[in-house]
Design brief:
252 residues; alpha/beta; 7 strands; 48% helix
């Protein structure tokens, strides 16, 4: 696991987990804003461009991150946030360690297994993989995702580096993920975020998570699709993150 970090001089630690097929650069703006007062850590997830290990499973990634937090930060941090695949890894961490963080942001994390999608991943990606390396195809995919334009070169550079093996592995794992029963024991204050334009399955996942997690708040972001909240609105992301800290502190 490779780590990108900023604000190492600060004591309070924030860990942010990127989405599948993306990387640390999706949070570069947030890192710059938060590093004035916080130590911000963005791991490059295994199997992604720039990582130094193969993707094994969501569960293995969660255990690896828990071991890292134990070693570097004494077993807990202020906040962990995650988008999509990163959000699923975060949920696994919360289930394994109820006190791993004080706050959590789970954005667009699916928890309803989709066996049909999982079954189609290997044949579809095997047939279409050569296209992924083509810049015109990457631009088409990028527009479909609705990611802000200034991130395209980062996106294309990492897409070219992704292996078919890893792309299939983490996509299949994500489509089959189920939360563990111990998640209900988490002590973290959790913001569950889903875009208004996301799929019914993603909205259903968010509602289930809200019911499971005892100290959670569900937010539906108006007009936004999958991942667009954190990727396209870094200023708002940081503003609302800090407001969440303040709202809790003001209760005491």
């Amino acid at each position: 696991m490779k780590i990108i970090e900023a604000g190492r001089q600060n004591q309070k630690v924030i860990i942010i987990l990127h989405g599948g097929g993306l990387s640390w650069w999706q949070y570069q703006s947030q890192m710059e804003l938060l590093s004035k007062n916080y130590h911000v850590v963005v791991p490059i997830l295994d199997g992604h461009a720039g990582s130094n290990a193969d993707f094994v499973s969501i569960e293995a990634s969660a255990k690896q991150l828990l071991a890292y937090i134990d070693k570097e930060y004494g077993g807990s941090v202020l906040l962990i946030a995650g988008l999509s695949l990163g959000g699923q890894i975060l949920l696994e961490m919360l289930a394994l360690r109820k006190d791993i963080c004080q706050y959590a942001i789970v954005e667009s994390a699916a928890i309803i297994p989709d066996k049909l999608t999982a079954g189609l991943v290997t044949p579809l990606f095997s047939m279409g993989f050569p296209l992924i390396k083509k810049k015109w195809f990457a631009k088409m995919q990028f527009r479909y995702l609705g990611i802000r334009a200034d991130l395209f070169e980062h996106y294309y550079e990492d897409t070219v580096k992704l292996s078919k093996q890893h792309l299939i592995a983490f996509t299949k794992a994500s489509s089959l993920y189920q939360v563990k029963k111990n998640l209900k024991n988490s002590l973290a204050r959790v913001r569950i975020i889903v875009g208004e334009k996301e799929t019914k399955k993603m909205h259903a996942s968010a509602k289930i998570l809200h019911a499971i997690l005892p100290d959670s708040h569900l937010e539906i972001k108006s007009g936004l699709a999958h991942g667009q909240y954190s990727i396209n609105h870094p200023d708002l992301y940081v503003k609302e993150l800090l407001e969440n800290f303040d709202s809790v502190l003001n209760k005491f």
